[in-house]
Amino acid sequence: MEPPDVPDYYDDLGVEQTATAEEVRRAHKVLALKHHPDKLGPGNCGDAHEFRKIQEAFEFLRDDAKRYEYDLNYKSLRQKWNRYRAWQKHQAEEEAKRREAERQAQEEVERQRASQSSWTREARQRAERNGTPTEAQQDQWEAFLVAERMIKERIAAKWTDIRTRCDKKITVRVDTAAQRVRNQTHERLRKREEEIRREIAPFFEEERRKAIAKAIGEVHRRLDARVEEDIKAFHRKRKVEEKRIINRMEDQRKVFYERALMRAAEKEAEEKRKAMEDFQARIREWQEEKAARETVGRE
């Protein structure tokens, strides 16, 4: 019985069909670390194959579109794999039974050989103790050798018969079971495929359209969220910039005000200085005029 053409990606990662993307990622990480070729000795092809199988399953299931189409037929695919695994288990059990039968037969042969060897050894020891064998003993010994050869031949024939019967029985069972499972599987698959085609034909395009619309809606939602976040960031930045500009303008206003006060004070001081000079000039003129009048009066 051949395995299904399409792999059971969920079983390869050890997760259920309902697993989330995070659960799939976590299962892949654990299995990848366990079967990574860098952690294994050279020539360990079994685990390298497991690693490639794990990578393939993860790369497939992480693609939402591929996973959606895969899930549409996963129920029938899972049934195929369950039947194949049941057949594998049956094969392993039959092989274990065959090996157990061979082991028991081998133990029986070894036991009879040990018993025969013990009997032969005792007979030889008795012959050696009795010295030179008589003619009757010689005949008895030859008869014993003939009997020993016949026993060995019977043991070999029994062993061959046991193996032949075991092989035939297992072969017949396996072939019959495999053919029955194959026929039943093909018939069920054919019917199930027809049912699936009839079931999904009216809805496949609608479901695909919904999936695309959902994906587009998700993209729009993410874009709107990004735009909203950018707008908020812009407003925050603008407030900070406005505050900085206001503070700078306030500092400049203070500087301008202080400079204006200084210019006003300087102007006022200059006006006072000029007024004082003018006042002093008038006093000098008045004094000169007074002195001139006094001089004229004395004359």
From TrEMBL:
Stretches the record annotates as Disordered: 97-139
Segments of skewed composition (Basic and acidic residues): 97-113
Alphabetical list of InterPro entries matching this protein: DjlA_DnaK_co-chaperone (IPR050817), DnaJ_domain (IPR001623), DnaJ_domain_CS (IPR018253), J_dom_sf (IPR036869)
Top-rank taxon: Eukaryota
Residue ranges of domain J in the record: 8-74
UniProt KW keywords: Coiled coil
Protein name: DnaJ domain-containing protein
The organism of origin for this protein: Colletotrichum karsti
